[in-house]
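Example 3.2
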Amino acid sequence: MGTSSAFGGQGGGTPLVPSWLGNEGSPPAAPDGATPPNGGGAPPAQPPARPPAPPERPPVPPTADPTRFSAARGNFSRFAGSGGDDRKALGRAVSHYVGSSSGGARTAAARMGSARGAGSRLLGFLSDAARRGATEALRALNLGALAGRPIEEIFLGLADYVCPDGGTIDEGIAREAFVETIADLAGAGITDLDSLTPDQMQTVFELYATNAIEARLCNDIGLKAVSLPSDSRQAARVQAQLNDFIRRAVADALTTARAAVAALTPDRVLAFVGGIYEQAFGILQIMGDAEAEGA
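Structure, written as tokens:
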């Protein structure tokens, strides 16, 4: 939730998944030429050429419901206002966010945008480091000078590769989630890239995906509009519970795909990461419904 504080929140009228790409209109076919009759002679006069039609503008995505985050925001405010005690409100907030506000798990995953690309680059690097060693993986990125440095320094050096800072909110979310992941490494017991195990590789990606989803959710519902506890300990408890809730969903999604992680190839990483986000959002909705019902 520290990530989202840098952003003002998602505008209600913003399309769920903006898409400004479309097929350009094709110019009209040239008129058929006439074949001169036998015996020669000038061909019949051609009709005046028509100017090519201008390309068709891609359709503008329909404006989304400006109130679509209201239910998620209201329930999260109740959860936060309870100091983390009202778990049913947390469940309703998460369930509404995935199902109603985002349009389902697939659309929610598609809205991760830059975080999908950043997650795939991070996972690709970690796979390469586990396979060939950290030194060779860093050399491949022209970062060989970082070899042997503390893992936090290595990851800070990887920031521009994993999540280039392009200035948009989406890119900012991806980058801040990566910075938070670096801060989480020591607490997860990950201190040496040279001896990275498959379980630790999965943990690093799990931390990143969790931070990215949390940041996306908090930015969308507009955390600044949510009433947080004034007590810093209660606020920290609220944050920790949300992070743990999301991480459980990400961990479950990764567990079901454990075999696929070991067999990842560079050309399949992006699709794999997108699939993990989609599964995680689907699990989050199920968990939210169960929590809301007091199960």
